[in-house]
Amino acid sequence: MNEIWTIPQISNWSISDQGRKSWDRKIPYYMRFRDHFAAMIEAGTLAQGVKLPPERALAEEFSITRMTVRQALMRMEAEGLIFREERRGWFVSPPRVRYDPTANIGFTESMAEQGRTAGTTVLSSQRVAASQWESTHLECAVGEPVFVISRVRTVDERAVLVEKIRVKANRCPDLLAHPLDQSMTGLMAREFDIIEHRARINMRPAALSEVPAKALGVAVGTPGLFLSRIILDQFNEVVELDEEFWRHDAIDVCISATGRKD
């Protein structure tokens, strides 16, 4: 998926002589570099989506090696301050999206509540015979028809996650005839009288493999968050299995919980 970005450029990113003199020489060069840009981002001097100068220019301005520049940039990437896109460079990260995987609310609606704009691009859709693995997770017979849908979800035109959705075809036979770039929760309720709710959620850190990395425009092996969940209907029967591969710098997992303290 190729996104079209309007890339604002930094007009004043260099370090002044006074600022350079104020640096504590005991602090490693890459941390001085990191602190300089982190302060600009925190102050709003560098707005979200701004593209950083090339690594060569950064190295020359700060009188450090490109290896030190890369070390500082990777440190900032790990902190979620900036992100990298293959063959495009480094950009200031937008605010993370708040995401509750347990909430029975669609992705588009959730983003709208946060003042963000969600988008969806369908990568593929097909009908397959359930494998042993799919049979176990969807609680269906091996060989039973299953729809497999792959999509990229965007927030403010930035790709943030790739999802693979598996649905029991017997519950919604003509699902693939409908537009699949909409809320699946809404589509299932409106067209097939299936009221979904979420259960059995698993999350873990994971390096992005080739397919999701390419769709998200990042390098293979980039840190990510893998999330899977079983979707039940109003009769507590399994109808869907979702797998999501998130950019690690795009998500802030927020789970609401109520309970009593003993």
Give the helix proportion (percent range): 25-40%
Number of helices: 8
In the residues, how many domains can be counted? 2
CATH superfamily of the largest domain, by name, is Chorismate lyase-like
Mean pLDDT comes to 85
Sheet/helix structural class: alpha+beta
Terminal Cα separation, in Å? 50 Å
Count all strands and give the number. 10
Rg calc:
22 Å
Inertia-based shape = elongated
Please write the string of helix (H) and strand (E) elements.
HHHHEEEHEHEEHEHEEE
Uncertain stretches: 1-11
Q: So, CATH architecture of the largest domain?
A: 3-Layer(aba) Sandwich
SS strand fraction: 25-35%
User: What is the level 1 CATH name of the largest domain?
Assistant: Alpha Beta
Structure, explained:
The protein has helices spanning 17-21, 29-43, 55-62, 66-78, 107-113, 132-138, 184-192, 210-216; strands at residues 82-85, 89-92, 97-99, 118-129, 145-155, 158-168, 197-207, 223-232, 238-247, 251-253. The N and C termini lie far apart (50 Å). It has eight helices and ten strands. It folds into two domains: 17-92, Arc Repressor Mutant, subunit A (Orthogonal Bundle), CATH 1.10.10.10; 97-253, Chorismate lyase (3-Layer(aba) Sandwich), CATH 3.40.1410.10. By secondary structure, the chain is α+β, with helices and mostly antiparallel strands. The strands form three sheets. Strands 4-5-6-9-8-7 form a six-stranded antiparallel sheet. A two-stranded antiparallel ribbon has the order 1-2. It has a two-stranded parallel ribbon with strand order 3-10. Residues 1-11 have low confidence and may be disordered.
